[in-house]
């Protein structure tokens, strides 16, 4: 994960030229801000409830989701000097493995997460162009391309579906202006409260296992910004 995260940071820095306008067009008081970030996506993945079990899960069975590092694009609009709205765009691939009696078993393979997020933020301008902020808003977790892992397949699952669900996110961070050009550096942390339900189905179309999972991911980001 560290290697992926470092690569994402490098990609973010290299991509600055794609989002930057001429220096004279930038402004520390502009209405729009674009951020190119490297992000670490750190989900939980624990089972919170078993709704259906036709395969006989061992007592104490648990799961965990893998971490990932990805590039992220954030777009922000300032309604006033101190209040803005921000949305992010990224996709992150994860797999779920067993813990406890299921330790080492592949449960879900290659599940792609799109954490669609909209937050309203309050910025506190300080001296020297340093602007810490806090924010909160709704989040929609969209899942794509999920497949049963080897462990789930061995128990008879031929398909798995993760439910798309709405939850909430809070964030905190800081923007640091680099002079008056509109360019800056940014650090950001988001905490999500979003769950999903995993539906495991056999080749005969029988739903043999249904489990509720806490995703509750952290997304930790760092990168560059341009305000105009």
Uncertain spans = 1-24
Mean pLDDT: 90
> What structural class do the secondary elements suggest?
mainly beta
Question: What global shape is seen?
Answer: elongated
Q: Into which percent range does the helicity of residues fall?
A: under 10%
Secondary-structure element string? HHEEEEEEEEEHEEEEEE
Rg from Cα: 20 Å
Major sheet attributes:
8 strands, antiparallel, barrel
Written overview of the protein:
The chain has three helices and 15 strands. With 228 residues, the chain is mainly beta. The strands form two sheets. The protein has an eight-stranded antiparallel beta barrel with strand order 1-4-5-7-8-11-12-15. The chain has a four-stranded antiparallel sheet with strand order 2-14-13-10. The protein is elongated and about 60 Å long.
Short description:
This protein has helices at 2-14, 16-19, 150-154, and strands at residues 32-42, 46-53, 62-65, 68-78, 83-89, 92-99, 106-123, 130-144, 147-148, 157-162, 165-177, 183-193, 195-202, 207-214, 218-227. By secondary structure, it is mainly beta. An eight-stranded antiparallel β-barrel has the order 1-4-5-7-8-11-12-15.
């Amino acid at each position: 994960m560290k290697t992926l995260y470092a690569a994402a940071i490098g990609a973010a820095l290299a991509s600055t030229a794609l989002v930057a306008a001429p220096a004279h067009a930038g402004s520390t008081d502009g209405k729009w801000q674009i951020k190119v970030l490297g992000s670490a996506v750190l989900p939980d993945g624990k089972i919170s409830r078993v709704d259906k079990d036709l395969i006989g899960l061992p007592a104490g069975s648990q799961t965990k989701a893998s971490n990932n590092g990805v590039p992220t694009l954030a777009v922000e609009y300032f309604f006033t000097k101190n209040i803005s709205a921000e949305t992010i765009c990224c996709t992150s691939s994860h797999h779920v493995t067993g813990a406890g009696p299921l330790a080492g078993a592949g449960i879900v393979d290659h599940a792609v997460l799109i954490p669609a997020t909209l937050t309203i933020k309050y910025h506190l301008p300080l001296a020297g162009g340093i602007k810490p902020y806090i924010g909160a808003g709704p989040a929609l977790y969209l899942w794509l391309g999920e497949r049963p892992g080897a462990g789930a397949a061995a128990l008879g699952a031929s398909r798995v579906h993760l439910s798309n669900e709405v939850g909430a996110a809070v964030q905190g961070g800081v923007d640091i202006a680099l002079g008056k050009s509109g360019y800056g550096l940014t650090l950001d942390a988001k905490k999500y409260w979003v769950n999903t339900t995993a539906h495991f189905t056999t080749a005969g179309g029988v739903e043999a296992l249904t489990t509720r999972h806490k995703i509750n991911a952290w997304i930790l980001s760092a990168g560059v910004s341009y305000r105009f």
